[in-house]
Amino acid sequence: MPKRILQGKVTSDKNDQTVTVLIERRFTHPVMKKVVRSTKKYRAHDPLNQFKVGDTVRIIECAPVSKSKRWEVLVEASA
């Protein structure tokens, strides 16, 4: 099974080797037929501490690194 890759914005880089990434997804509501925005935060492993708040990054699933980290930063996305 392939690993999921998500793109989002870094909202926090206060922890060592960890960034918090906000992922937004849009979908059509099944009853209202209106586009709905849903957000979720993921904690991702950033071993070099190179990403700062506001950066757009891509994260990929990985084996558990800690209690809350199941993702790691893949590469900085352009724009």
From TrEMBL:
Cellular component, GO annotation: ribosome
Cell wall biogenesis/degradation keyword on record: no
Gene (UniProt): rpsQ
Gene3D superfamilies in the record: Nucleic acid-binding proteins (2.40.50.140)
Annotated InterPro entries: NA-bd_OB-fold, Ribosomal_uS17, Ribosomal_uS17_bact/chlr
Role summary: One of the primary rRNA binding proteins, it binds specifically to the 5'-end of 16S ribosomal RNA.
Keywords: Ribonucleoprotein, Ribosomal protein, RNA-binding, rRNA-binding
Pfam name, any one: Ribosomal_S17
The protein's name: Small ribosomal subunit protein uS17
Family as reported in the entry's similarity comment: Belongs to the universal ribosomal protein uS17 family.
